[in-house]
Amino acid sequence: MPKRVVTGVVTSDKNAKTRRVELRRLVRHPRYEKMIRRRTVCIVHDENNESHHGDTVEIIESRPRSKRKRWELVRIVSRSQEVDLAALREQQTQAAKSAEGGSGEN
Predict the structure, then answer these.
(1) How many structural domains compose the chain?
(2) From CA 45, how far away is CA 90, in angstroms rounded?
(3) What is the CATH number of the domain that holds 75?
(4) In this predicted model, what pLDDT tens digit does every residue of 18-63 receive, in sequence order?
(5) Structural domain of 86
(6) What's the CA gap between 41 and 9, in Å, rounded?
(7) Euclidean distance between CA atoms 64 and 49, whole angstroms
(8) Ramachandran area for residue 76 (φ above 0: left; ψ -120 to 50: alpha; else beta)
(9) Distance from C-alpha of 32 to C-alpha of 14, rounded to nearest angstrom
(10) What global pTM score does this model have?
């Protein structure tokens, strides 16, 4: 039986070499026929800690590595476009301080 290969989004990268990936899908309700959002959560082994929160990744089934970890990272399909606002504000304040310090010396 071939190993399944699926694409999902990384929702947690807090653990070393481990990622939480969500596989999202739409399902039609049997009676009301409304489209319902469903998700499957896969715990994925990421040997080199390449992926980060928000990245779209391709994963493949593998041998059990722990109690819940049954998938391996194949590749990163696309990087996240999310911006860390705290880091951005810190960078802007550092730039403002260096600009004030440079003009005050003359």
Answers:
(1) 1
(2) 32
(3) 2.40.50.140
(4) 999 999 999 999 999 999 999 999 999 999 999 999 999 999 999 9
(5) 5-104
(6) 10
(7) 19
(8) beta
(9) 39
(10) 0.76
